[in-house]
Structure formats: structure tokens, C-alpha cells
Amino acid sequence: MNIMPVIDAVITILGIYLIYVALRMKKSKKVNTFVVDEETLKRCKDQVAFAEYLSPKMLFFAIIVTITGIIRLVHDLVFQIGIFQYVVAFIAFLAFLLFFKQLTDGRNKFC
After folding, report:
1. pLDDT tops 80 at residue 1
2. Distance CA 59, CA 95 (A)
3. In this structure, are residues 69 and 8 in contact, taking their beta carbons and an 8 Å threshold?
4. Predicted confidence (pLDDT) per residue in 47-85, tens digit
5. 10 pLDDT above the threshold of 80
6. FRET partner for 31 with CA separation of 20 to 30 A, picked from 2, 7, 47, 101?
7. Cα separation, 6 vs 53, whole angstroms
8. Which of 85, 32, 37 is nearest to 58 (CA)?
9. Is the pLDDT of residue 23 over 90?
10. Contact 11, 79 (CB under 8 A)
């Protein structure tokens, strides 16, 4: 049994959820505890500015994760896309590193 389509579906669902969290964070101007723990949020000097700083970066990352999951699902279930799948995975990895750095920078700046 091939479990990769299940993992790819979970990645896609996670990406969609991250899009929802990023849009909600942008609208409410509050950082979600899914992204930053409550202890850190209590120390934040300006949660509104932190949410405004983080939400577009998180939205970009979430869109990359969602696209990656969809491409991987297509690769596993519909047709093989060859080396392109590795390029997409590498781009997703770079997006993760960039988002993590921006999250850390935001915590250092606002909390």
C-alpha cells in the first residue's frame, strides 16, 4: 500500500488551513496560537504590528505548501511529473526556511 497520497493530502489540507489562519490573522490583527505559543504572545509589546508583519509572510508560505501538496497528489494519483516534483519540494523547503526566519525575526522584533 502506497501511503504517499495520504501524506500529500495532509500537506494540502495543512496548507489550506494555514491560508485560513493567515487570512484570519490579517483580519483580526491577532497572532494565532497555532503559529506562536501563548507565553511568547504574552511577552509581545505590539501584537497588532506582529500580526500585520507576519500574516502576508504566512500567507505566502501557506500558498506554497498548498500548491506543493496538490502537485504531489497529481504526481502520485494522476501522472508522473518526473524531476519537477523534486523542484517543487525544494521550493517548499526554501519557503519553510524563509518563513521560519521571518517568524523568528518577528518574534525578536515585536516580543
Report:
1. no
2. 11
3. yes
4. 999 999 999 999 999 999 999 999 999 998 888 888 888
5. yes
6. 7
7. 33
8. 32
9. yes
10. no
